[in-house]
Amino acid sequence: MRIGVITFPGSLDDVDAARAVRLAGGEPVSLWHADDHLEDVDAVVLPGGFSYGDYLRAGAIAARAPLMHSVVAKARSGLPVLGICNGFQVLCEAGLLPGALTRNGHLHFRNRDQALRVERADTAWTGSYTAGQRIVVPVKNGEGRYVAAPADLDRLEEEGRVVVRYVEGNPNGSLRDIAGVTSADGRIVGLMPHPEHAVEDLTGPSTDGLGFFTSVLTAVVAA
Amino acid sequence: MRVPRVVVDVVLKPEISDPQGQAVLGALGRLGHGSVRSVRQGKHFVLEVDGTPDRDELQQIAETLLANPVIEDVELHLPGA
After folding, report:
1. In chain A, where the domains are located
2. A220: pLDDT confidence band, cut at 50, 70 and 90?
3. What DSSP string describes B1-48?
4. pLDDT tens digit string along A111-156?
5. Average pLDDT, chain A
């Protein structure tokens, strides 16, 4: 199972994401933002970091990188895509996920272990969890406040597109405690917290994050 | 000959909260400028364009890259307009 991990200039967590893929039992494939065509991969991870220095808006330039044209096209026809932190910002800027990520309400960079509730356990990236499960993974962002128009938020809730929600404290002022959302088909997921930093006891607060990477292996086989 | 300049102002939509603007407002209060009632922070782009600026193309540039229409509005200022 080949899982691509895209490196943009300024990506920081691409190596950790690739390691998480390997620990889950997948084969990580390094992808470069400036390539025109997407290699033969079964899914794609957009890692955290500060692509293009967060110039213009976080994720805005990366969303228009050459490789993203193929990623967007294939994601629209069902390729599983996971965006973590900056990767989530890229997916929103690319129009693959609704809403936007803005400066944290309190203006501080927030870096801590964060409890989340998994709201949807039937997406391509969360099938290894159970709905309502509490997990703890690191969160670290300065522009992680999820916003959308009230009507759009209502629609997302009605359609069950909130995948994970902050519990026991909202780290950035995200509306309705939204930490991650999914596409209508459940194949594309974006979240601000970092499951790839919670895959080993030695380095993470838990191994709760590994489920994102094991989920997609099953989802690809089932598809 | 002067190259035509187009100015694009990008502002947060009124319903999107602006914590940076609120921080500026707080600092102004501490500096004694209590008469300032609100601050909204935005971005200001100056584009130099070859030939006659095309309003439709510039609107597209503004809405597809310079601004994120989910949270921001744009104001185009063309020369002579």
Report:
1. 2-222
2. confident
3. -PPPEEEEEEEE-TTS--HHHHHHHHHHHHTT-TT------EEEEEEE
4. 999 999 999 999 999 999 999 999 999 999 999 999 999 999 999 9
5. 96
Percent of chain A at pLDDT > 90 equals 97
Residue (of A223, A221, A216, A174) closest to A196 by Cα position: A216
pTM of the model: 0.94
What DSSP state is assigned to residue A69? H
Q: What is the CATH number of the domain that holds B46?
A: 3.30.1280.10
Instruction: Decide yes or no: CATH 3.40.50.880 for domain A2-222.
Output: yes
Structure token digits, residue B3: 């190259």
Annotated active-site residue in A85, A92, A119, A197: A85
Nearest-Cα residue of chain A relative to residue B16: A147
**Could you give the count of Cα atoms lying within 13 Å of A50 in the half-sphere of its Cβ?**
8
Contact between A100 and B66 using a beta-carbon 8 Å cutoff:
no
Distance CA A140, CA A138 (A): 7
The closest alpha carbon to B70, from A63, A30, A76, belongs to A63
Question: A214 in contact with B at a CB cutoff of 8 Å?
Answer: no
Predicted confidence (pLDDT) at residue A172 exceeds the cutoff of 80 = yes
**Which domain covers residue B11, as residue numbers?**
5-77
Of A200, A163, A164, residue with least CA distance to A185 = A163
